[in-house]
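Support case: zinc ion complex. Customer-provided input:
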Amino acid sequence: MPSGSWLFRRAMRLLLRWLRSCVKQGRSKPSKRLGELWLYSRLLLRSLCFSETTNSDVVVDSLFEPVYWLVDHLTRWFGVVFVCLVVVLTSSVLIIVYSFVLPTVVSTYPAPWATWHLCFGHWNLVMIVFHYYKATTTSPGHPPKEKCDTPSVSICKKCIIPKPPRTHHCSICNSCVLKMDHHCPWLNNCVGHFNHRYFFCFCLFMTMGCVYCSLSSRGMFVDAYGAIETYYQTPPPPFTFKEKVLHKSIIYLWVLTSSVAVALGGLTLWHAILITRGETSIERHINRKETQRLKQIGKVFRNPHHFGIFNNWKVFLGVEKRSHWLTRVLLPSGHDPYGDGMTWDWSPQRRDLVAI
Ligand SMILES: [Zn+2]
Ligand SMILES: [Zn+2]
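Agent response - structure generated as follows:
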């Protein structure tokens, strides 16, 4: 009984012969393009059929390569659209807040309360813009392509370079990324060792900003919603054009900020749990599988990058002394994360991080 791999090799050889005969027949009018295609197909088929390391995974990966290519390119293209969407939506919210919400707050609230609104709102805005800009423009970090002494756990099949611990290949960026968390289309960038803090802080401050906008415009939203309900009465109340724009803008503001607050709040909470556990999104899946595997043989999995809840946060935020909670967490800061993203044989205990 012939095995599946034997049948597959046989089919590939027949396909190879058929392609060769096709080219021989068409040799009377050969073209350079056809010749290149033939050479490429022959190389592809031979590497699939006559390689000792070929298995079903390699064959399936090769067959699906055009699909992966299409998805990766679409994601890369959509990344630009998503970044534009973030900028446009945030700008539209800012225009509405500066045109309608802040003037109402300043004219109706007591002076101390209005001052607090102005200070908090602008601090939150600066933190959002700073962290989004840094998250999109900072490279997540890549392992060196040339030969070096950094420890590696495997070889990347795509880049053909050693992969240090916690490094993973991103097919959308087409490169290996240090301490890769995920590829974020909203940033059009990978989230890795050097921009993970910027990504998380952006999510956190954006959620805070949306909650703030949603809560502070709630009263105006109720009034605007009530006014729009009366549009359908006969005869309709005599609203001016400016009042109609105000009502629709406030409803748009409240619906958008409330929806983003819920969705982004959930994502921020998930990432906060991961940071607390000292793992990335990819490591969450790997560690879960490893925990189950070791449990079956009576062993317990220990995450080597978990230094304790408080220390994990200090390592992640780059807090080394008390003043850093203000200068590096509550104010915009461009400091580098701990380590080079390639060696992980250190712990914060050894660096006296717990002295705070
Ligand atoms: Zn790679
Ligand atoms: Zn990527």
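Strands lie at 154-155, 162-163, 168-170, 175-177, 182-184, 189-191.

Case will auto-close in a few days if no follow-up is received.
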